[in-house]
Amino acid sequence: MKILCGRCLQKSGRRGERGGTRLNFLIVMSIIVVLGYVGFQMFPVFYRARTFESFMQDTVNSAAVTNKNPAWVEEQLKKSLAEYDVPPDAVIKSMVHDSRLEAQVQFTQTISLLVTEYHYTFDKTVRSTTAVTGG
């Protein structure tokens, strides 16, 4: 009976698997790098859009409480476009609907990725939480 050491078995049993681990590591790292890059490009756009939507809601609520007209809401939103990195050609509408102020903003922003472009479309309508008495 012949006794083999663990080292001898390891060499003979894994002869054809050489380099497989490196390839798997490179594939996983490539996927992580690509996802990181895409996230790095898209996260700021999504974050600014979310904060702009919050600003829209605050502006409409403030206008409803202080009895401002829809033109004032549009003016405030237009003034803040650069602060939230919204394109200057954004469509801004404001109106009184069912005794509440509404503001709608629409724009498309292009996010450049390595081999393609993603067109993020922002189309949000916010309504005041309090009813307006005049307008």
Give the helix/strand layout:
Blueprint: H1 6-13, H2 20-65, H3 70-79, E1 91-97, E2 100-112, E3 117-127
Antiparallel strand pairs: 1-2, 2-3
Average residue pLDDT = 88
How are strands sequenced across the largest beta sheet? 1-2-3
How many whole angstroms does the radius of gyration measure? 28 Å
Helix content bin: 40-55%
- How many H/I helical runs? 3
**Which sheet architecture does the biggest sheet show?**
3 strands, antiparallel
Give the strand tally: 3
Overall form:
elongated
C-alpha termini separation: 100 Å
Low-confidence blocks of residues: none
Determine the strand fraction and express it as a percent band. Answer: 15-25%
Helix vs. strand class? alpha+beta
Q: Write the element-wise H/E pattern from the N-terminal end onward.
A: HHHEEE
How would you sum up this structure, described in words?
This protein has a three-stranded antiparallel beta sheet with strand order 1-2-3, covered by helices on one side. A hairpin with a 4-residue loop joins β2 (100-112) and β3 (117-127). It has 135 residues and is of the alpha+beta class. Helix content is 47%, strand content 23%.
Name the descriptors.
alpha+beta; single chain; three-stranded antiparallel beta sheet; elongated; 135 residues; 23% strand
Would you summarize the structure shown here?
This protein has 135 residues and is of the alpha+beta class. 47% of the residues lie in helices and 23% in strands.
